[in-house]
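[INFO] parsing input record for dITP/XTP pyrophosphatase
[DEBUG] input buffer:
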Amino acid sequence: MMKKVMIATKNRGKAAEFETLFSKYGIKVHTLLDIEDHPDIEETGNTFEENARIKAETLSKELNEMVLADDSGLIVDELGGAPGIYSARYAGEDKDDEANIDKLLHEMKEVPENKRTARFYCALALAIPGEETILVSGKCEGKILTERHGLNGFGYDPVFYATTAGKSMAELTSKEKNQISHRSEALRNLEPIMKNLFNKK
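[DEBUG] output buffer:
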């Protein structure tokens, strides 16, 4: 098996994170950004796992190659799990990070600090032609801040205080974020599976 994997995303921030995390295994990453005018894959699932599987299996069948897809988002306890699978389009179909943060801060405006608990969640699906799709997940616990902090990262990072880091996700360097993020935990759970695949192929 050639040491490459298609990541089913057009999100440059996500693509950069996967590239950083895969580089240490000598695995070349390419994404939907490398396929001209590729249509978005409709996410019709009701869970992160279902959406990740749909994206991975659809693209793997289309390209006849190994595809890794993630579906990830923010789960806020006080909002009943919202924005959840709708995290990217919480404020509308335009998928505007700043508008999403503004809406979240508005929704949480009156919520006291002890009830602002939240987590980032990531489901990964690895689809390989002729084999069973592999599903793993990861999470990062924290809370929602009352205002933005930091300039790094993307999405909800500026308003998500990561408990283990003691600061917002947007205040972390890429290296620091990759040590604690929901996506990196999911990839760590996938790592032994990937090693086994590449060793036997």
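[INFO] The helical segments are 12-23, 48-63, 97-107, 174-180, 182-200.
[INFO] shutting down worker
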